[in-house]
């Protein structure tokens, strides 16, 4: 039965899941936006970061707060993203237009498979972190404060990213590059540097998502590609390259998944995809995509 | 299509190989027959994928899922007591119609967008096959009891593979193929020359989808089993594209060689149970994507300075 209390808990869980998805998909959409290349290994970095949290948690015998790993993992994955763009994406971008349509898919899929394999060799089973803060009691209500803290942190990161993209010069340069790469180039923006920075940013968002993800569910080495698939769905749903669209799409998907799984877990992913296909049939450019997007 | 002496001479080796392949399964064990069928399935999928990709440039990642839908519908109908022929026909027509129904709106996008949206469709197919568990059996899939159908499946697949090659060749030599290639170079220019690009794309998609639509049921015929991972798994979704592009998209030889090499590699890696098999596949993908823009056939072409029919990118 769906009581008001259950509804509140579900909404909270849905918002948190949506928040995690939004970190993932905003990361993916900005990297797609600047490079016009879909990074199929995006979710692997969330998995790697979840794995890092797990290993640290095991190593210290559960005596530390997993949230603190964010301070290490975000800069670390930023550097990885920077190098990832420099050595894998940039050479691809310099290929003829015809090759750019498929070669990045193979390369990033290849990277994803390699990362999965390495992670599976490191931890060949499902892993999780059983960390929780004391629950919050409000009258008859008992809410998980770990979830609330996660939700607050996710929101803070999303708002921080938003302000960065809106207010700082680099952020504006990133948005300009997403809108019109050649135009940004003629305005004196170093689009190569911006691409590297954006990949750094994208992967550090994935890293943050991984930290929150492992605190709400178990993860295994092969979770990366399904995560990427969901992020891809959200990115298409929101309109490719649209940051606002991705945020909204992620919240819709997170809530839909949690509400649907209350009734039937098997359907949660399908419903998400069905929403996606229906929206695409009506608006092929996605919720906030520009009409007639061309590459 | 001209049938001059040069063509016949060039067609000779492939005909001899094809003839040998034709009698081989009669002397093979069950495993070898299944492997030969698998080769044929992937030859058909890679070549028919390249009918669209090689001529129009559109990378259709929904290609394998059309195969998957056809396989599922066939298994479901068979399970409900329909005979093999009626099930095959219905499944093929259904999945062909599905391909066109979803393909039509997808063609409003281009380039990387088209690729990603078709990938989205394949992922939806995968999760639908799980969720609709009262018809699809969920993760357990559907097994059908047909007895040993390796040989009938082999000869049907063989005929279908030959038909794919002939169709591929006929299109590349036809005026229709020329129109598609014009469109690949520059869609706006093609339109301004009076080519109806949208209907051309749909026609190319229809022709390319016929083959996965028919091969789906033939696949179930010899495996007598279907589940979400065997037909809609990521390995399958990316297989036709990987094989065609690895071999060299845009020529008959490219997807043919690509499917043979990659199917062999998969078979070796997955039967030997190496711990690093995904790494090996991943490295192959990275190397092909970064350093072999024209695939294996393109490499040969560069080395020997002659054309094997793969167009320059």
Radius of gyration of chain A: 19 Å
Strand order of the largest sheet of chain B: 1-2
Rg of chain B is: 19 Å
Estimated helix fraction of chain B: over 70%
**Helix amount of chain A:** over 70%
Order of helical and strand elements of chain B: HHHHHHEHHHHEHHHHH
Describe this structure in words.
The complex is a heterodimer of chains A (295) and B (313). With 295 residues, chain A is an all-alpha fold. Chain A has a domain at 19-126 and 134-222. Chain A has twelve helices and two strands. Chain A has helices at 4-35, 42-59, 70-93, 97-100, 103-122, 145-167, 169-179, 181-186, 191-216, 224-238, 243-263, 268-282, and strands spanning 136-138, 141-143. The mean pLDDT of chain A is 85. The mean pLDDT of chain B is 87. Chain B has a two-stranded antiparallel ribbon with strand order 1-2. Chain B is mainly α and 313 residues long. Chain B has helices at 5-23, 30-56, 63-79, 84-106, 111-131, 133-136, 150-173, 175-185, 187-192, 197-223, 228-232, 234-247, 253-272, 277-291, 295-304, and strands spanning 142-143, 225-226. The longest helix of chain B is centred in the first third of the chain and has 27 residues, at 30-56. Helix content of chain B is 78%, strand content 1%. The interface between A and B is large, with 52 and 49 residues.
Question: What is the gist of this entry?
Answer:
Helices cover 73% and strands 2% of the residues of chain A. Chain A has a domain at 19-126 and 134-222.
Output the keywords:
heterodimer; A: 295 residues; mainly alpha; 12 helices; 2 strands; B: 313 residues; two-stranded antiparallel sheet; 78% helix; globular
């Amino acid at each position: 039965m769906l009581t008001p209390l259950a509804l509140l808990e579900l909404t909270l869980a849905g918002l948190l899941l949506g928040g995690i998805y939004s970190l993932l998909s905003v990361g993916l959409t900005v990297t797609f936006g600047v490079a016009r290349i879909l990074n199929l290994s995006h979710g692997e970095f969330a998995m790697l970061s979840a794995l890092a949290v797990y290993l640290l948690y095991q190593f210290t015998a559960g005596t530390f707060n997993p949230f603190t790993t964010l301070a290490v993992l975000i800069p670390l994955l930023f550097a990885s993203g920077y190098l990832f763009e420099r050595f894998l994406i940039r050479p691809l971008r310099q290929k003829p237009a015809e090759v750019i349509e498929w070669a990045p898919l193979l390369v990033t899929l290849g990277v994803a498979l390699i990362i999965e394999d390495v992670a599976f060799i490191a931890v060949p089973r499902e892993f999780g972190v059983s960390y929780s803060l004391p629950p919050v009691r409000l009258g008859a209500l008992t809410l998980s404060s770990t979830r609330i803290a996660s939700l607050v942190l996710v929101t803070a990161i999303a708002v921080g990213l938003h302000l960065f993209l809106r207010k700082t010069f680099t952020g504006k340069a990133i948005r300009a590059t997403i809108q019109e790469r050649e135009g940004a180039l003629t305005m004196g923006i170093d689009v190569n540097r911006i691409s590297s920075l954006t990949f750094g940013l994208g992967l550090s968002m994935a890293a943050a998502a991984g930290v929150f993800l492992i605190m709400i569910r178990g993860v295994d080495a092969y979770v990366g590609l399904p995560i990427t698939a969901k992020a891809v769905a959200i990115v298409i749903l929101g309109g490719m390259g649209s940051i606002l669209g991705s945020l909204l799409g992620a919240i819709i998907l997170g809530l839909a998944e949690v509400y649907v799984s209350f009734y039937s877990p098997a359907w949660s992913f399908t419903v998400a995809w069905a929403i996606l296909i229906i929206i695409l049939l009506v608006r092929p450019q996605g919720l906030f995509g520009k009409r007639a997007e061309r590459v | 299509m001209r049938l001059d002496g040069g063509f016949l001479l060039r067609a000779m080796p492939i005909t001899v190989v094809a003839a040998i392949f034709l009698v081989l399964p009669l002397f093979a064990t069950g495993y070898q027959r299944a492997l030969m069928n698998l080769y044929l399935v992937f030859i058909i999928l890679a070549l028919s994928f390249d009918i669209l990709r090689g001529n129009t440039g559109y990378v259709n990642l929904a290609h394998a899922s059309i195969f998957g839908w056809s396989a599922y519908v066939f298994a479901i109908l068979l399970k409900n007591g329909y005979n093999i022929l009626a099930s095959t026909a219905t499944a093929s027509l259904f999945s062909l119609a599905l391909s066109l129904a979803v393909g039509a709106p997808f063609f409003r996008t281009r380039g990387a967008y088209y690729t990603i949206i078709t990938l989205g469709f394949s992922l939806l197919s995968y999760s639908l096959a799980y969720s609709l568990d009262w018809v699809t059996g969920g993760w357990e899939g559907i097994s059908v009891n047909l007895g040993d159908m390796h040989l009938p499946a082999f000869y049907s697949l063989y005929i279908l593979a030959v038909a794919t090659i002939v169709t591929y060749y006929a299109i590349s030599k036809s005026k229709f193929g020329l129109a598609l290639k014009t469109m690949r170079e520059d869609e706006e220019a093609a339109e301004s020359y009076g080519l109806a690009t949208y209907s051309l794309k749909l026609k190319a998609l229809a022709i390319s989808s016929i083959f996965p639509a028919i091969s789906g049921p033939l696949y179930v015929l010899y495996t007598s089993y279907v589940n979400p991972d065997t037909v809609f798994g990521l390995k399958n979704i990316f297989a036709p594209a990987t094989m065609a592009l690895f071999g060299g998209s845009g020529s008959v030889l490219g997807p043919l060689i690509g499917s043979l090499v990659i199917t062999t590699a998969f078979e070796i890696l997955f039967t030997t149970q190496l711990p690093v098999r995904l790494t090996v596949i991943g490295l192959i993908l990275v190397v092909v994507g970064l350093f072999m823009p024209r695939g294996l056939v393109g490499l040969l072409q560069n080395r020997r300075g002659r054309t094997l029919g793969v167009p320059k990118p």
